[in-house]
């Protein structure tokens, strides 16, 4: 059952990020149809994240109470309604409203998915499991880009959005029919224990925990990487077409290549982290050092694009930059959940929602940076890349220096016991 859950979470994340990224792939026809400027397009990209952090926290906290299965099914159905609603969009205000509402209902998905995978896998496999879930984001945002571009060109951008709505309905039905909330015997024990703890959450202690170095600098590192996540989603297609001079078809293939290569990279790094953790049980070495080193290397690859803008190197550097910096996405949730295991959904939502504040700032800021140099758009795009790289370098260094995760022996032992119980059953 754990592998069925993981596969469906993987496909759910594909839909989640396809919903996010299709707006960037359809940027040119949308801007032409609605007569939008770069500044207005930056607002469209930013609007998705206006409610995302808030609903992410409350949605994940609610999922801790009612169960991930019900919450994820409900979220998918709301996405379907909104994607079909795109057919009625005829002006900028409606496009912004659609993006705000889509972001609001997609906000809880990632933290709930990470927390749900956490329940089904023991510590020695959680890095891998989360990397599979995260890889669904890359598939949805990049690898399926040629398919989405083809849908946009054949059906028009509105019908392409509606097709994603249909995929959401299929997923919601499959998830309800094929999965369970958690391992049966363990769930009954955990449910009683969790219900008691949920009623006695110490708000002051919780806020102090969020301000601790482990939680604070993990969140900031996630934030810096998510600036790049948003850049890849909103601005990469435009960058490849207008700066690197690719056609729409070439752009779609390049985005897919970047997605495939980067997925293999961060799954490999996450598996390395799991391997080191299994051998030494050392959080600093296996989680923090591996992630920080990868992020720093990825940021340096990103800066190399400023000096070498040959299309082949741009794609190669993007593969490395995305794959290496994204390692915080699967490993970060394991660090946060480790700080308060009984509140896994809530802790992960704090991480993802706080990090996704980048989604509010980054698209609009990128549009503003590019608009500063209207006579030299190449320089503006390069300046935005430099900004992303420096941000990641700074916060990954802080993450490396300050984050010293707690050793949660009880939680680790319980998870291993759950794993043995599942095997015996």
UniProtKB/TrEMBL annotation:
The chain crosses the membrane at residues 50-67, 74-101, 128-152, 205-223, 254-276, 288-308, 314-337, 349-371, 383-403. It is a multi-pass membrane protein. Keywords: Membrane, Transmembrane, Transmembrane helix, Transport. Residues 5-408 form the Major facilitator superfamily (MFS) profile domain. It comes from the Bacteria. One of its GO terms (molecular function) is transmembrane transporter activity. It is found in: Cell membrane. PROSITE patterns: MFS. GO terms for cellular component: plasma membrane. It holds the Pfam family MFS_1. InterPro entries: MFS, MFS_dom, MFS_Na/Anion_cotransporter, MFS_trans_sf. PANTHER family: BLR1003 PROTEIN, SOLUTE CARRIER FAMILY 17. This is Transport protein. It comes from Bacillus thermotolerans (Quasibacillus thermotolerans). The lineage of its organism: Bacteria, Bacillati, Bacillota, Bacilli, Bacillales.
């Amino acid at each position: 059952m754990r592998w069925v859950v993981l596969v469906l979470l993987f496909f759910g994340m594909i839909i989640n990020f396809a919903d996010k990224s299709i707006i960037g792939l359809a940027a040119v026809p949308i801007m032409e149809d609605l007569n939008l400027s770069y500044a207005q397009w930056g607002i469209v990209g930013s609007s998705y994240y206006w409610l995302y952090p808030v609903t992410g926290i409350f949605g994940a906290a609610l999922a801790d109470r009612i169960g991930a299965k019900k919450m994820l099914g409900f979220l998918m159905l709301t996405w379907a309604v909104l994607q079909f609603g795109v057919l009625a969009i005829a002006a900028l205000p409606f496009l912004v409203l659609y993006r705000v509402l889509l972001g609001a209902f997609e906000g809880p998905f990632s933290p709930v998915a990470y927390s749900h995978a956490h329940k089904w896998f023991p510590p020695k496999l959680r890095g891998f499991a989360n990397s599979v879930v995260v890889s669904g984001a890359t598939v949805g945002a990049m690898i399926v880009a040629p398919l989405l571009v083809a849908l946009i060109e054949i059906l028009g951008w509105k019908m392409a959005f509606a097709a994603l709505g249909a995929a959401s309905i299929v997923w919601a039905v499959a998830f309800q029919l094929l999965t369970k909330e958690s391992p049966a015997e363990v769930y009954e024990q955990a449910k009683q224990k969790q219900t008691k703890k949920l009623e006695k959450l110490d708000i002051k202690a919780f806020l102090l925990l969020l301000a601790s170095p482990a939680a604070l600098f993990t969140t900031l590192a996630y934030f810096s990487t998510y600036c790049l996540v948003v850049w890849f989603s909103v601005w990469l297609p435009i960058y490849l077409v207008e700066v690197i001079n690719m056609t729409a078809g070439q752009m779609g293939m390049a985005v897919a290549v970047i997605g495939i290569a980067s997925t293999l990279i961060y799954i490999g790094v996450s598996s390395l982290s799991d391997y080191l953790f299994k051998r030494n049980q050392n959080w600093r070495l296996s989680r923090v050092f591996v992630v920080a080193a990868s992020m720093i290397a990825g940021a340096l690859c990103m800066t190399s694009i400023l000096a070498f803008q040959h299309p082949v190197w741009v794609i190669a550097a993007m593969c490395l930059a995305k794959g290496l910096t994204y390692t915080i996405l699967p490993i970060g949730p394991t660090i946060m959940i480790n700080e308060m295991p009984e509140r896994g959904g809530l802790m992960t939502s704090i991480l993802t929602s706080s990090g996704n504040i980048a989604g509010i700032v980054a698209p609009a800021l990128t549009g503003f940076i590019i608009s500063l140099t209207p006579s030299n758009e190449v320089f503006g795009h390069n300046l935005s890349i430099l900004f992303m790289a420096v941000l990641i370098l700074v916060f990954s260094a802080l993450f490396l220096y300050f984050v010293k995760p707690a050793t949660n022996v009880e939680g680790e032992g319980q998870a291993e016991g759950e794993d043995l119980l599942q095997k015996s059953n």
